[in-house]
Amino acid sequence: MGDNQIAGHLAETLRHAVAFHNADLTPGQRRLVEEGFRRGEILLLVATSTLSMGVNLPARNVVVLPFSWAGEMEASPEKRLLLPQEWSNRAGRAGRDAGAFGRAILPATSPKEVDLYRRHFFEGTPQRLPLHLSEREVLSGGPVFVLWGYETESDLSALLAAAPSGQARLRPSLDAPDWAAAARDSLARAAAAGLLRRRRDRYACTRLGRTVAELGLGLVEAEAITAFWKRLETVPPEGLLVFFACLLEPARQAVFPVEHSAQARQGYVEELRDWAGSSLEDVEEGLSERARWEERHEVAAKKALALRAWMAGEPGAALEERFHAPEGRFHELADTLAWLCQSCLSIGRTLGRDLEALDGLPTRARFGLPAELLGLLSYRVPGLGRAEFLQLWREGFSTPEDLAAAPRETLVSMLLPETAAALYEALAPLRRTTIAANEDLPGPDRLDVCGRPAGRRVVVLLNGRRVLHSLRSFELLVRIAWGRLHGHAWVARDKLGIPPQYVTQYLSRLRRELAAGQSPPGESLVEGDGTGRLRLRVAPGNLRMDADQLALAWPELHLPNDRSCPQLVDC
Both 472 and 509 in a single domain? Predict the structure, then answer.
């Protein structure tokens, strides 16, 4: 259930068959509450409006309070009556199962309230739903509209006018005749930003525009990210990219609280400087000077450092104490920042940047795990979340091979029984590949580690079929192949010459790239022995590699010094 403060409160209420459900819970805690309610183990559930937005639970009696908060929580919000459709939606959660009894209860404290609620909720005319596009959505959506096939101003104008929101209006000050102008402005702004190109009366997405449309980015964010990459001459430090993503993410106190202590805010800024380096000025000109920092920069600095602690595997309780936010908010923030980091990297690659060193950042941001644990994500099963992965890590299990070698009883001692059973079953194929060190498996008929360049990729021939590798995973393949050719076969992970925090990431990528070249698909060509050692699942006689030739072609590779192996032949 986790180690955060809310987990303790939840455990206490569950002893009485009572639970609560809100945005402060982690995904695992929400799942636990929802499943417990479905099974009838939780008899009373207190929830925010999240459950009225699509989570089906078998409630027979639903008590709906008639008021909600209007405005942001940090800005002295006021209570207001629910709209009739809001009350109906929440009341409709009762009796969702087919044929089930359902009852909604609206509490009132006086006859006057009873009369007010009757007139407001049941006797009034239902409000018309305000279906309308915002001006920002229309003006930012040019690449998406073109990608959908609306390639001319007249096509887009007709689409906007025919949509249900268009039949109402774009905004109070824009009526029907302005749809043509809205379409023209949307396409023109996207073209000016380099997202579209125009040929006569038709528009088409540029490579950058297609990337932006597929990511679901708006025009403002796309322009900001593009400008960010144009200011940079080198690959940015990880901290700089995370800070930039935090600046793009809206500063909502209700989601992640602002630090009110000026001293604490200054501390966040100085810590960020250490992480992102002097290149902070590459985000916005002048940020290297303290006087140019505004509140939004300080909020972004706090979020960036919170994400760093989250990715480092800091426990939930420690995160809550340090950053004054429940762990559930970290999950929400991480989802948004992972998407923004991925968007930044995708646009950077489209602009021709080599960002391989930052490849694992979005995944680490999303799941809150150190780089060395990313290989475990391939074995996610229900009930195995961040807290459970970190528990495995603390017990010394950081790779799939480590887990595959563990007895079932060991997994049961660390995880819930059903989670341990599912994980043990998921690891079964990997256990079959962890073989004795002196046992030879046939593998492919031929693997040529040629190393011919193909753009920014490297060619390897698997049974004569081209397989493209990134330079990092190719370096890993060369080192494992070297060990195979020398006869001792197994290579310890700490002898690979690769920073430990990146080994799992590069290994997962290498396995995926080799698997793409296998026809028909087979077991992984890189196997482990359960103790952290790796071996290439290829007979030495079927492996071809010329280390001297590779050293000339790829001087940036750090190849082994000993090249006296008699089994090396030219490929």
Answer: yes
